[in-house]
Each structure stands twice: as structure tokens, then as C-alpha cells.
Write a structure and sequence with these properties.
Largest sheet: 7 strands, mixed
Oligomer: single chain
Strand order of the largest sheet: 6-5-4-7-8-10-9
Number of strands: 10
């Protein structure tokens, strides 16, 4: 088909695709969303409240209106959309602004090396290796706690933990912010959590657990997932967004090791960005695979069928997706035979 009959917008729509996260980051760092939390304001008001320039605020705010994150309730004034109010105002329970704070310094610089990464097959930085990854995740994991919070609370409700009458042992693997262990433990005093992560990251897990009043119900195991002692007899094991950084062979070994650590009848819960079997969608999973190319030496994203087969080979039964939970990415569960 000749170019004159094709729509160039299918290509051009991506020409400034880097801009939205950087615009959100700027507004978060300048506390512009926070300044709108109590009602609409003009660019002059916002500049005075944040110490930014009137011209800069006006143009950035108009750009955020274009992104659907702000509105013009009156000419020359700006207000939050419901989504911005829920997710981009500091201090609110579902706050996601912390994630965007890392765009310009931690995330995008590595993507700028994508051509060389593709050429060599080597990551810009291997964050799946402790030497480089611990420092990265120390700065990052607490800010992404809200990303998995609703899913983790939904998982706790799925397990009916609030009705627990006997001890429930939870194994939180690559615990990071502790969002999975914290959310499960909050549901019942019978829940105790063993959090496994690198020595450089576990202080963050400990701090978050203590902030939620759960410090006395967490135990900590330092080490890489391939080497750390998981113990035995756990009733639930969580793997929150970790298989994509491990790659195929390490993921298979990790699932076998997790199977051995679970009590009979125990359940594994895996949060992951999934792609379909043909790898032609959905876009978030395919793009995240490129993120793994940039940031790990063996990572990728996988289909439910692939993960399901690994689980079955490890001994688990009935792999399934909990598609009724409010997850930013799918949640897979499977059981160890009782």
C-alpha cells in the first residue's frame, strides 16, 4: 500500500511519548498536584504556592489538562480530575506520585542506551544482581508500595484471612516494600510473615512493617533468592513481580524451591505482567519485556501458559488467574497438593 494511503499518526503518536511521565514527575516534585488538593487555583496562585514560574506552571498545567489529569473548571484556573486527586496527591492512601519521581534519574537514563543494549544483549544496569540492584531498589521499592496495595489486600480477602482461627505462615519472597506481607498480616493477628530479600533492601521492609504496627510479626531472611533459606511449612508464598527479572531457568528453580517451602495444601501467589502466547499483546506486558532487556541480564515477560507449565512441573496444581482483583497486572495462584 502506498504511503499516501497510510495514516502517519500511527507512528507520529509516539514522537513525544517520553513526555507524559516527565510532565507528571515535574508536577509531583513541584507539589503542584498537592497545591490543588483543596480546590481549583490559577497559575498565579500555583506559582506563588510552589515557588515556580508563572509561565512554567501555566504551560505545564495546560499540558496536564491535555493528558486528562487536570481540568479547567473556569477560564485560567486548574483543578484535579478524580484520578489525579486519588493517585497524585501526596499523603493519600493510593498515592502513586512516588513512582514518577524516579522517571528522569533512575528509569529513563537506562532506556537512553536501548540501541546499545539491543546490539550487545547486555543490560544498561543489571538490577537483578545484588551488587547493582540493592542500591536501585533501596530508593525505589517504598515508592511503589501503592502499586500492589489493592491487589495484596484483595489477595488477603480472597484467602479469607480475617476469618483465620489458627496460625498462618506467609513467605514473602523478594519482599521489597513488604506490601504483600503487610497487607496479609493486617487482616489477622494469626498471620506471621517471613520476608526474604537482599541485606540492602530488608531495612526498607522492616521500616514499612514497623510503620504499620507489624514489626513483631515479621521475621527477616537475608540473601539472594537462589541461596536464601526459605524454611518450610508456610501456608502462603508471595512472588510480587519477581519472575520477570529472574528469567526462565531461575524462575523454574525458584518455583521448585518455593514448592518445597510450602506446607501441604499451601498456595503460591504470583503477580506478573503477562503477554499472550503469540506475543502480540497486550502492550504493557510487551513494553515491560523491553524494560527487562534494559535492566536485567536474563529477564523477560511471560504468558500465563508458560508460568502455568512451570508451576505444574514444580508440583503445583490448578494454576489460575484471579481476574476479579483490582490488580495493575494479573495475579496467578496455584496450590501444593494437600
Amino acid at each position: 500500500m502506498p504511503a499516501s494511503q497510510l495514516d502517519p499518526q500511527k507512528v507520529l503518536q509516539y514522537s513525544f511519548a517520553y513526555a507524559p511521565p516527565l510532565m507528571i514527575e515535574a508536577a509531583v516534585k513541584l507539589k503542584l498536584f498537592d497545591a490543588l488538593a483543596d480546590g481549583d487555583k490559577s497559575s498565579d496562585d500555583l506559582a506563588a504556592a510552589t515557588g515556580a514560574s508563572v509561565r512554567g506552571v501555566r504551560i505545564l498545567m495546560n499540558g496536564l489538562v491535555g493528558l486528562g489529569l487536570l481540568t479547567h473548571p473556569k477560564p485560567g484556573r486548574y483543578a484535579l480530575t478524580p484520578e489525579a486527586g486519588a493517585f497524585l496527591v501526596r499523603g493519600r492512601p493510593a498515592y502513586l506520585g512516588g513512582f514518577f519521581q524516579h522517571a528522569s534519574e533512575q528509569l529513563i537514563p537506562k532506556w537512553l542506551r536501548l540501541t546499545e543494549v539491543v546490539r550487545t544483549g547486555k543490560p544498561a544496569t543489571a538490577v537483578n544482581a545484588e551488587t547493582e540492584g540493592a542500591a536501585f531498589f533501596q530508593q525505589f521499592v517504598e515508592d511503589i508500595f501503592p502499586l500492589s496495595r489493592q491487589a495484596a489486600v484483595g489477595l488477603a480477602d480472597h484467602f479469607k484471612l480475617a476469618e483465620a482461627k489458627s496460625p498462618v505462615a506467609v513467605l514473602d519472597l523478594a519482599a521489597g516494600s513488604g506490601v504483600w506481607g503487610v497487607s496479609l498480616a493486617e487482616k489477622s493477628p494469626h498471620v506471621r510473615v517471613t520476608a526474604v530479600d537482599w541485606p540492602g533492601v530488608l531495612p526498607v521492609t522492616r521500616r514499612v512493617a514497623e510503620r504499620h504496627g507489624l514489626g513483631d510479626r515479621f521475621a527477616y531472611v537475608e540473601g539472594d533468592l537462589a541461596d536464601a533459606d526459605f524454611g518450610t511449612g508456610h501456608h502462603v508464598a508471595t512472588l510480587g513481580h519477581i519472575l520477570h527479572s529472574e528469567g526462565i531457568e531461575r524462575s523454574k528453580l525458584l518455583l521448585k524451591k518455593t514448592f518445597a517451602a510450602l506446607a501441604p495444601g499451601g498456595t503460591i501467589a504470583i503477580a506478573e505482567w503477562l503477554v499472550n502466547e503469540d506475543r502480540n499483546g497486550p502492550p504493557p506486558g510487551l513494553i515491560f519485556a523491553v524494560n527487562m532487556l534494559v535492566n536485567t541480564d536474563r529477564g523477560d515477560t511471560f504468558s500465563f501458559g508458560e508460568i502455568s507449565r512451570w508451576l505444574t512441573a514444580a508440583g503445583f496444581e490448578n494454576p489460575r488467574v484471579l481476574d476479579h482483583l483490582p490488580c495493575p497486572s494479573p495475579l496467578i495462584v496455584a496450590n501444593k497438593p494437600g
